[in-house]
Amino acid sequence: MSANLRDWYLDTLGVVQYRPRQEGAVDIPFPVDIEPQLESRPQLVSKPQARTVNAEDIPPAWDAAPETSPDKVVSKESPQKVEDSPVQSDSAQPVDPFRIACWQQGDDLLVIHAFPPGHVPVPEERKLLFNLLRAIDRLVTEMPAADYIDWPLTPGEPTDFQGAKSMLSVFLDTRIRKCGVLRVLLMGELPARLLLPSQAVGTQVDFQAVLGEIEDLPGGARTIVIPSLQDMLTTVSSKQVAWRALQKLLVPRD
Hints:
The chain is α/β, with parallel strands linked by helices. 40% of the residues lie in helices and 13% in strands.
């Protein structure tokens, strides 16, 4: 590379060249449209910016080069993804705090009922449940003590639906595999939403459709849904639905 061409190349890149004082300016023998040397050297930092494309020369998004189009598409689609995310993430939908009461009568029957936070069954509710269990020969003298599970486990924690479902599924699986539970009685809509295998995460259960229907649980147990104690206390027909469902649940397997 000739000395003249080298000097022009280095000046174009913004590289400072140190020459002896007696050396005069170099004449470039071929036509190149660049700025004078004395003006370009003091602006070494800003000179590469001056050679970039000006903002007014950038074409609109629909005329952009192919390599820049993906960035435009992502920036235009991102607001739509943010809007769609709450609909797609059903598992993260919040659920109101609740209390689960569990009664295990004998070795094979587990009763699960949902109550408001901090609620303890009132005498009318306990008497109704006592009569139901006695009618199916699962209660001889008195009601067993209830086990309570509050959700969320710690006040102030997130109350997403998936977290509640996972927590109760672990509890139920432990009772089935380690305590020999064979039949699970789900009383009311919330236990059905949380524990029925047929209910997808975050979906609204069709409660009337699952009333009295038997489903198999992991571990060999079976479950059936009946109305809650509150429903049976206010609606006489709910007691008849519960009684028919209990008869189906107690039928031995073929």
